[in-house]
Structures are given as C-alpha cells and as structure tokens.
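Appendix B. One record, verbatim.
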Amino acid sequence: MRQTLLSALLLILPAGGIVTSPAIAMQEGVPTELDEQVADFIHYVKIARYDVAKDFGYLIIDADVSPEAFVDAIESGRFQDQTDRFRDAVGLALQVDDFPELAEVAASLEELFEDGKLQRARNPDEVTRNIEMLTANMRGRDIGTQRLVQAGEYAVPQLFDALLDSADAVRQERVRQVLIAMQAQAVMPLSVALENVRPEEQLIVLDVLGRIRYDQSVPFIQSVRASTDSPEVRTAADAALSRLGARAADELGGAWSFASLAERYYDEQTGVTSFPGEEYQLLWSYLPEAPARSLIATPIRSEVYHEAMAMRLTERALEGAPQSVDALALWVAANLRREIETPEGYDNPAYAADRREAMYFAVASGMSVSQRVLARALDDRNTMLARRAIDAMSRTAGGSSLWSSAEGRQPLLEALSYPNRRVQYDAALTLGAAQPKQTFAGAERVVPLLAGAVRDATSRYALVLADDAEVYQGYRTMLENDGFTVLPRSSSIGEAYDSVVSVPAVDLVVTAVSKDRAMAALPEVHGSSRLAAAPVLMMLPRREAAELSPRFERDRTVFVRAMDLSPQQFAAATEQLLEDAVGGVIDPEEAADYADRSIRVLRDLAVSRNEALPIAEATGPLIAAMGEVDGELEQRIAEVLAWVDRADAQQAIVDAAMTASGEQRIAMLGVAAGSAQRFGNKLEERQVQRVIDLALNATGEEGTAAAALMGSLNLANDQVLPLVLGD
C-alpha cells in the first residue's frame, strides 16, 4: 500500500516520532523567507553541506507552513519552478548513510510536498478551475485532465454534474474522457449515482462505466437492468455488462454480485481501496431530490471503511436473497469487525452511535451464522473476531449444535487447536458448559485446556529467530524483563519446531535476521498450525525498516521496527503489536476470571460425572495448580479434585489441608472427607496417621473436622480407639 517515506520513518523513530529543530537552526542570520529556505535547502544538499541543509529543513518544518503553501514555494515562488531540483535534492538526502537526521528531514519535506499537491488537486475550487481548463487549449486541457485524474474520487461530484450537463457538449465529452481516464476512482461514485438518476442520464453513466471496465460496477448495472422499465436503459446495461465480461442479473437482481463484491471489500483487497495508506476513504451516497440532487462523499476512517462497504453491499444482497445464511454471516462478521477496529472515540458516519451493538445482531442471527463467522475468523487468523463469534455461540446454543457441522466444518472444535490461548480457553469453556452427553472429535482437549486456564493463563511465550547468539540474548533479556518465557534460539521456523510444540501457544515471534529471510519466515509463520495467530515483530536496520514498513501498514499482525530501539521502545512496540493483533496479553485480572470460570465448569462436569468430558484428565494440572495458590482458589480446586476417583487427587487434598490453618484447614478437611465418602480411603499410611494425630490433638471445629475425615476413611477399630480411650 502507498505510504510516504515519512510515515514509514515515524514508525521507527524514537519516542515522539516528530522531527524537531535543534537550537542551532534558529541562529542569527538564517533567512526566514520560505522561498529562500527551500532554495537554500536544495543548494546545500547539492554541495554536500548536509549539516547546513538539515538546519534549513528544520526551519521549514518548524514554520508549520501549510502543504499547499509549500508546493507554491517550490513550483511558483520567486525562484520559479524548482520541482525537479527539489526532487533531486530529496533523493540525494535520502541516500546519505552517515547523516540520518538529514534523511529524516528530507522525508518530512517530501511528504509535505506530496500532501500539498494532493490537497491542491482535491480542493473544490481547484477542481472547478481544472474542469474549465478542459475546454481551453491543448496544454490547458492536458493540465486540467492530469490534475483531475490526480484528484480522483474527490473530483467526481463536480465532474458528474458536468457529465450530465448537455448544454456544453464539448465539455461534456471531455469530462466523459476524464472519468474514463480515472478508471477505478470513478467507478463507485458513478455506480451509486446510476440507480438514482433519470433514464436518459442512466444511458450516459452506463456508457462511461462500461468503458472504464472495472467490475465493481457490475452489481449496480445488473440491478438497474432488472428494475428499469426503459428498453433503452436495458440495452445500454447489456452493452456495459458485455464490455465488463458479465451477464445480466438473474431473478434476484444482482444479489449474488453484490455479495461477491462485499467479500472483496471484507478482504480489503487493493482493487477496492481508493486511497491506500491514507487516513480516510470516501463513502458515496446520492441525493436525488431536485434542485439539490448531487453525489455526496462522506469521509470515513480507513480502519472501518471496508467493513462499512461490506455491510452496505451485503444489505443489498440480502434484499434480493433474504434467505442467504452466508450473506447474513458476512454482514455479522463485518459488523463485529467494525466494532473491533473502530478507533477509540471515533464517531463512525456509517454506523450511528445510537444503533445497537454488534453482538446484538450476532446473537439474534443464531447458531448457524455464528458458526460461519467463527470459521471465517479462524481462516483469517483474526483472534478478536474469533472470540466474539464464540461469545455469540455461547449465548445462543447448547448441546450438539455447538460441534455440529457447518458446511462440512466444525469451527468450534477447530478453535480448540487455534494458536491463541484465549480462543482455546473460550472454546473449551463454551463446550464444557454445554455438558455434552456423547463424545466428539477434539473432546479430549477440553478438560486439559480448562485445567490449564486455572493454572497458567498468564504465561506468555516468545520465539526469537536470530543467527547471532549475542543478538538473540539481547532480545531475550528484554522479553524476559517484560514477562515472556523465551524459547531457545533458532535461525528458522523449521528449526524451532520442537520448541514451539512444547508450549501451549506462542504469543509473539521476533525476527532478527536479514530482510529477505524475515520476509521468507512470514508465510511459514502464517502457515504453521502452531504459530499462525502469533503476531510478528520484524527487527531490521533502520533504512530497511523504513523501506519495508509501508507494506504492512494495514496488517495488524506484523510490525516492522528498527534494531536500534531502546528497551523501553522495544517493550512499547511489543505491547502495541499484541494489543492490535490479539487484544494484548492476558493480565492477572483476566487470568483470574478465566480461572474462576474454568473451575466452575470443571466442578459442574465433575458433579454431573460427565462421561464425554471426564474430569480425571484435569487431575495433574489441578494438583499442580493447587500447590501454587492458597485461600479460596485452593479450596475451589480441591472441591473439583474431590470428585476425581484417583488416589493422587485425594492425597493432594489432604496434604493441602495439613499445610493450611484456621478456617482454611477446616474447609479443606471437609473437602477431603467428601472425597473419601465418594471413593473410599485412597490415602497413604503416613497421611492416615497425620489425620489421626490431628483428630487426637486438635480442638473445636478443627478437631471435629479432622474426626469427620477420619470417620470417612472407614479405619479399623485399633486406629479409632485412641480417640475414644484418650478422651
């Protein structure tokens, strides 16, 4: 995706990220006229006085001039057009390896210049002037065409008005040629307008859309053809569809074409993204009421643009095919993803603030839709969407419907092996709470996952790919300081296989190898069943990081950073990457919630003696967890183990009771007694003797609790007599 070099550099600059001038830049005698500053920047770069050139660059940046004013200073200042000289100077400055500050300044100035040219081309007054130039001489026509094409979608409303104005036939024809030259930039606004204008105007728009030959217009043309009463419009629609290699719509009026186009927007394909790398895209609507009828462009943040378009187009599909579960699932997925990706505090013009939350529609749509949304999320490795889909399933379904097939798949069962522990835990909790009566594929993973959630939900694992042991150790130290367990050094994904399969899931992959090898590792990570959901932090030399980072601008799972980041900047980068990709690491509060929910589900499975999900499979992890905690959590784990017909479970409960004190000991003795009542005495002799000793020596409630445990063990008379005779 397109992004200026400055935007790339800002990703890897030290904290703050913005170039600021040193005090030397304001020294006495430095010129303050913008034209002169630009000329001097160019001059000193060309004579290799990089220190002076840098200072003049700082002056321009600190002056906070508008992008358009900067373009004017370069193209039409007192020194005439300096565009070529400016571009040459920027190119030279970016190649100076031993003066990185100059490269940063040059990148800032280049972005300012490109932004200025774009803003000027998109200015409505400038668009009007450029349309007027279309009927001027050949040079004026060429300049006007070039600037209008550069303005792209921003110029289409005024061009559209001129296209429908038959009073000036010459301008009308030249506007038509400009719109055709715009290609994809003209398609969506013209397609939206097509269904809202008069039949005679539809003929004009259909001709333009057919000659542009970008197939985003196909569903709109099919819809018009299916609904029109005009034979001329129908013929023109057929001609346009023929040029586009499409057929006339079926009886559903283009519903499937709308759904297909919605999929392309959902996938955020480059071909349907008008302004790659920019903060905003444009949503189009048409106001048909005269005399103000016009095309209306609404800016919308790029983060939620594709979701808005996918939802709009899917709604059109559902109008024609209201029974389509797939179309409804696409709409629900897009709406959930919209909610996930909406920038904090942003008022989305495509989704009113008073409209219901996305989960409302997800749960209302039912199990079949949620399954499809989950399958889509798993395929896309979208962890946060997967969790929303599982949440919806847990609220609306139970029993075998949770693991039944959706178009030949069992998404919830697939989620048990998804390479992210939150998704695994969520799926296991949902399946466990359903209390299945019969076993199913993957059932053997549910109870161990729940037990793991009780014990080690806060653990986090990182894989570092590095050739150099010292480089590896540096990153390992920083990651360990941030709470990660770092797997042994590996140079490739294949070499790391044994380490990766030894842990529940890898939360982060850090590459500290060459750019080519880092790029080669990405598909290996994304294609690995154990790593596919792990975000990747690619550490590269500063220049290579600047070159590569634009390619991952909209990829929430990959960050590119410079290798010279400080430990604080590295920690901030990992935190932000994990937050963007998977919602951050599992913190202690969230881990406690997982533990609480898992224990409740495990206890319900134990009490019900569920045969499909046998609680005994959790024995080892729960015993280990009980040894690491105390208080209420220890007691709740013991209550689960008390339903396990195994000696090690009962023995662990008694050992925990003996090390406890006060109310905690009394409670644990009672839990141990419950285990003995159900399954008989499974204690070792040493433990039996400790219980007897406690019953002999303890007083009050503790003594009674110890005696109750002793009684539940069904001991021989000679073991009980000391209590009687002793009293």
